[in-house]
Amino acid sequence: MTVNQKITTFLMFSGQAEEAMNLYISIFEDGEVTNILHQQDGTVLHATFTLKGQQFMCIDSSVKHDFDFTPSISLYVDCESEEEIDRLFEKLSDEGMVLMPLGESPFSAKFGWLQDKFGVSWQLNFPKS
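Now predict its structure.
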């Protein structure tokens, strides 16, 4: 799939980039790795992948740092069905942390916010029809 977007979400991990990318592409029906380059130690030097037609980039940082992901920035996903939002919420929250459980909200039929086991925050939305 060719994606022609001007702004791409870039995720920096500390050794779990490939594991995270493989989880994400396994739970989104049309997810795929489009490119991956490894460092000599096997960590990810640079990778691109797509989820729902959106391109993402990720790396494993070669520098140790004291910061990680924060919920102040999250990936917002509009789901096409209640089954999809339930499935994504279950898979992404496994070993993660639920920030807002799935439920109805003023702007959606079902909404939930979570932080996955890698620390990446996701807002999942099933819009009202």
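The longest strand covers residues 97-105.
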